[in-house]
Amino acid sequence: MALRRFFAHGKTKTSQPARGRKSGRAFVSLLMLCSALGGMQVGGAQAATTSSSVVARPAPSSFRPDQTDRAFLADLEHRTFQWFWESADPATGLVPDRYPSDQTQSSVASIGFALTAYGIGADRGYINRQQAVDRTLTTLRYLWKLPQNDTPDKASGFHGFFYHFLRRDNGLRLGADIELSSIDTALLMQGVLFTGSYYTHDSASEAEIRDLAAKLFNRVDWRWMLRPDNRLSMGWSPEHGFLPNYWEGYNEGMMLYVMGLGSTTHPLDPTSWQAWISTNKNRWGESYGQTFLNFAPLFGHQYTHAWIDFRGIKDDWSRSAGIDYFENSRRAVYAQQGYATQNPGKWQDYGPNVWGLTASDGPAETTKVENGQSRKFMAYTARGVGRDYTLDDGTLAPTAAGGSVAFAPELAIPALRTMKDKYGDRIYGTYGFVDAFNPSYHDGKQAYWADDTYIGIDQGPILLMVENWRDGMVWNTMKDNPIICRGLLRAGFRGGWLSTRHTIVDHDDAVRLKQQQTQQQQTHAG
């Protein structure tokens, strides 16, 4: 069900501080209500699909960025990196959910993006390698020492998973409404795995990074989070047990299964991957001139791809469909741009170079009359467009285009530049793009609403995907990670760059087998 994760994702970020934070439980209730309602449209936007059996597909990109494009992206990447570098606590490595802000919570998902950001910063020369090593070590040491148990208020996690939000002063669970989150832990672990593959120098500090990364990842008990139907639960709490919601269908949950399948300590069985993709037939369809696996907000198409290069590699489903998952997400970007171009909801300024719906802040929970038409506006929510539903209130999130640069640079780069040029320093500042803005929202004080803060899990896709488009650095680093390679192979992926990675996995498995044999011999000898 597309709406299941659509609203569950709302608990990954907070509402704006003045409005208070919504709990994971509140969002679960909301998602169950909307699932019962079925498809939805907001603000007069009706879902449009292509009726023709011949559907346009984006041609391979012939886009050639000019010098101005490249200078702009270099500036955007540097500014976005600075958000992670300056927002993180240098004494613990904890990264806030949003910044600048007076909130007290750290987001474990933001930490995963930050751990990757430090490597990017070292490669780009924003910081030196030793600075990246020191900050990474501080973060991993702190995470490793945080308590893991089933108490409601004296733990940071359980079974290797971490709570969604941690207190910034001591790293413990933020409160009783915060769930042990499988997806936020997965985002953290992507960053952890990146550190293990990036810091390969023969030094004591980089060896410690690799050791801590392995310990943190190996502690995650993926099987504990597994339901009887072989799907992974979205979370757990000591008060209520496992959440009733689970991961299936095409969305950011893909990374959970890849890492779980790649684990050597608590591995998932390949049947879990089959359970996850079993609903693909229900998600495949036409939307705004494209045929693809639909998921309305663009974050679901970006998060896993930020670390894993799916170009040219296919599992059983993608082989049968004749499309890889990268191309699928590329089509989703084209569909979003097509929606904004058609602009069925008649939102202000929408067009070919002004588009982007995903999870983000919004102006307010209110209804206003604009040009004689009643308009419902929202605060934080996961906006999107697809064949299943459309949720749109005129709010645009630059991360929708920024996190899509690697998918469709010919659409994303002109959109980012147009938005920056049109709306200026109200949406582009010290740390790049603010989280969101809404040209259709007028309050009598400003010509339009613009956010005043940045959110970690929206900054992350911009930074990683711009870097992947510019140099492929994050993708190439993760191609050497045996966990990721093993997970993909066990899920049935073959071809492309993965064809040369069997040696990595075979070697790692051989080392593990030898270690097990040694342990068994020592046990018998004892």
UniProtKB/TrEMBL annotation:
A Pfam family it matches: Glycoamylase
Superkingdom, taxonomy of origin: Bacteria
Ranges of residues in domain Glycoamylase-like: 246-482
The protein, known as: Tat pathway signal protein
Organism: Acetobacter lambici
Source taxonomy: Bacteria, Pseudomonadati, Pseudomonadota, Alphaproteobacteria, Acetobacterales
